[in-house]
Specification:
α8 crosses α9. With 181 residues, this protein is of the alpha+beta class. β3 and β4 form a beta hairpin. The radius of gyration is 31 Å and the shape is elongated. A two-stranded antiparallel ribbon has the order 1-2. The chain has a two-stranded antiparallel ribbon with strand order 3-4.
């Protein structure tokens, strides 16, 4: 990742380079620029002792606020409150995994992996009726010579009945009993 550079008096350096060259604390320069100061004003204004203390305090206050910010949702489990990132770090689970489980509507205990996830296998027993015949998805898959997974993908993708109940390749390309030559 390329670091941002600042041009001043014909030289182009990173903020770290300017801090070393000017003898001004990096955090002071960073906060001055973050508060809308021009590069010239930030680099030319002498540092007062009073400026260093608030800069550090402001930085610490922002860090504390960032930890409590609800950008990462706060989850409570057994009386313990933490952000998604904090749970992820504590339990060694990727943050995106917890986010995805939350998006899918899992309870908090299952989202953070402290309770087993109960999967819904009801799609295996779902009954479908086609041309007056009612069978489960597994029975339809067997009848049509397709895998259960393939048949369920057809359902999930919203195939029209003609394609949903079309026979699989194995049935269409079945070999005859003739011997190979």
């Amino acid at each position: 990742m390329k670091r941002r550079t600042y041009e001043y008096h014909g030289f182009r350096l990173t903020l770290t380079g300017w801090a070393a060259r000017l003898g001004i604390d990096y955090d002071v320069l960073r906060l001055r620029l973050a508060n809308g100061w021009t590069v010239e004003r930030a680099f030319e204004t002498p540092v007062e002792e009073a400026e260093l203390v608030p800069a550090t305090q402001a930085h610490e206050a922002r860090k504390a606020a960032n930890r409590q910010r609800t950008k990462g949702k706060i989850l409570e489990y057994n009386g313990e409150r933490r952000t998604v990132s904090e749970w992820a770090k504590k339990l060694g689970i990727p943050r995106v995994t917890i986010d995805e489980r939350l998006r899918k509507g899992y309870p908090v205990g299952q989202c953070i992996g402290l309770e087993p996830i109960k999967f819904d296998y009801s799609w295996r027993c779902r009954k479908l009726t086609y041309k007056g015949e009612t069978l489960t998805t597994r029975e339809w898959a067997d009848r049509l010579h397709v895998s259960l997974c393939q048949f369920c993908v057809r359902i999930r993708k919203g195939f029209p009945p003609e394609r949903l109940f079309a026979e699989g390749r194995r049935a269409r390309h079945a070999r005859t009993s003739s011997k190979r030559r």
